[in-house]
Specification:
Order of helices and strands: HEEEEEEEHHHEE
CATH architecture: Sandwich
Helix content: 10-25%
Radius of gyration: 18 Å
CATH class: Mainly Beta
Number of strands: 9
Amino acid sequence: MPDDNRLEQERLLNRRQLLGRAASTAAIMFLSQTPLACAEKAAGNDDDDDDPIPACVLTADLTEGPFFFDEKLNRTDIRSDPDSGDISAGTPLNLKFNVLRIVEGVCTPLTGAYIDVWHCDAEGVYSGVDEGEGRKFLRGYQITDANGVAQFITVYPGWYQGRAVHIHFKLRLITGQTTTYEFTSQFFFDELTTSTVYGSSPYKERGTRDRLNTQDGIYNSLTAAEKAALTLRTSPNLASGYDGEIDLVVQVG
């Protein structure tokens, strides 16, 4: 199991770093429900050319937590272990990242960014450690396209003791062999959707999870706007499982 004390120490350190930036970014911390909101005028004020353009919400950085390995697995479908071919059981989740770069309050798609994703399986196990040692399931990266979009096929994550349901991600800009920018965080899930998913196999065999979002220390370190921005928007997929979408807004350099 992950070391919750270590997670909490890492969270506090990252939180101090976030607060250190807050003063300089306060002017652009307004809640947006659309990925390109900073390029649009506020609803209902289109007839006033002097109205300010609403800004995006800077995505909060959060602890890397367990357990990032730079496996360099360039793949859209991260459900399988690349060595054995075994596919992780669980409700399918089609995951879409809209990645934006903010400059002077204006957001544009960030192209060519590496997005790594990793999370536990339906039983709360991470590949590479403990029961998952020697395996690489539920890990991989994609590079954002011209629209700043990166997509993955995975399964709805399970839970482990002491944490609410979440997925880790890392964004990097890489030139040659050099990482020129790195940003790490994690996102959360709507509780009603999680309860629905966990009512079916293989999740229901694990029993009731021990942390809701509101009981999670890392989730509670966020402001209301940051919580909303880091909660995956989900909708049922007609074929199977769920579609999930999240907007990431970063300030590069």
